[in-house]
Amino acid sequence: MSKQHIHIGVEDADRGFERFTEAWHKAEAGEIEQAEIHLNFEDFSMLASVLTPKRLELMKILRQHGPLSVRALSKQLERDYKNVHVDASALEEVGLIQRTEEGLLVAPWDVIDAHVRLVA
Fold first, then answer.
1. How far apart are CA 3 and CA 42, in angstroms?
2. 94: Cβ–Cβ under 8 A, 6 or more apart, which residues?
3. How many whole angstroms separate alpha carbon 12 and alpha carbon 14?
């Protein structure tokens, strides 16, 4: 079983489109074994505003304890329900966490690979 892996970073739209085009051509040629999943942000401040330490901890708890409701997650984190709800909504909006059919939150990623270039 392969691990669910996501690449996160800062990338301009043109480079993202180039990477997509390259992957498309490789797929057509039968050269891709497994699709890569990328989540890119316009700049570092946007990335940092989404991936805060508290949100990373939230995802870690979801990986450790499996699907949880926001209430159960807030108890595990020992944080206010409203703040956990806001954080969960932000992570869900960008696809870093998801909801099950029952409405519970899950973190589908085993590995989050984050890259930040200091120089373009």
1. 27
2. 39, 50
3. 6
